[in-house]
Amino acid sequence: MAELHEPVTYRVADGVAHIELRRPDTANALDLSLARALLAAVGRARCDDGARAVLVTGAGKRFCAGGDVGSFAAAADPESYLHQLATEADAAMRALAELSKPVVAGVHGAAAGAGLALMLSCDRVVADTGTKFAFAYPGIGLTPDCGLSYLLPRAVGQQRALSFALDGAPLPATTALAWGLITELSDDALVRARELAAALAAGPARALGESRRLLRAAWEMDRAHAGAEEARIISEMAAGPEARALITRFATR
Fold first, then answer.
1. In the chain, how many H helices and how many E strands?
2. CATH topology of domain 8-202
3. What is the C-alpha to C-alpha distance for residues 1 and 18, in angstroms, rounded to an integer?
4. Would you say the pTM of this structure is higher than 0.70?
5. Exposed, middle or buried: residue 22 (CB in 10 Å: 0-12, 13-18, 19+)?
6. pLDDT tens digit sequence for 92-110
7. Please, what is the Cα angle at 93 between 154 and 117, to 5 degrees?
8. Cα(130)–Cα(63) distance, rounded to whole angstroms?
9. Where are the domains of the chain?
10. 58-67, pLDDT tens digit by residue?
């Protein structure tokens, strides 16, 4: 188990790998240490046979406030620092999105900037009813990073994404749900997210994980490539013990 002072903790219980951001004093804002620790935790989840599903949460009062503005201001060369941070944080987000395991986010308090990209790299996003969602970048004179310009319009549509980015006003949780930015509201998002992750881990997790990977990867493919990749994966799955057992059970009902 990771120590509490580390920027990201990783632990596995009942088939669920719980990745938690642990910089609560900065609202879990991303600096280089957190970005690198997040990438390492996602790498552990990818290789961990005991992890059948993944849960992502943030410690403290907020899920993730985006980039750590204090670290930007303190950098000797802000341009180089921001380029490095954006690149390394994006690598962590992409690794999360590319996992062949289902991923649930439990979101509370606020998600802003790169925190939105982290959330949108997950498949099921449960938020507390009081959570606020903010684009945030223009307020400090910056532009999106961590793939948000790619992820956001695919989640909510181009015009809503533009409105959200340009208006500057945070979205309440009810609007985020109506737009498809999140998938569920709860009075206790962490408890509900744990329930969802446990249910996914208890199910046909390999099939669920490959399905989420295919659906996300298809944005990068043409129709023929998507079909070919589906054919490759479904044939591999059919040879595995999970599919064989479930197919036999279905055929003998």
1. 11, 9
2. 2-enoyl-CoA Hydratase; Chain A, domain 1 (3.90.226)
3. 11
4. yes
5. buried
6. 999 999 999 999 999 999 9
7. 45
8. 12
9. 8-202, 205-251
10. 999 999 999 9
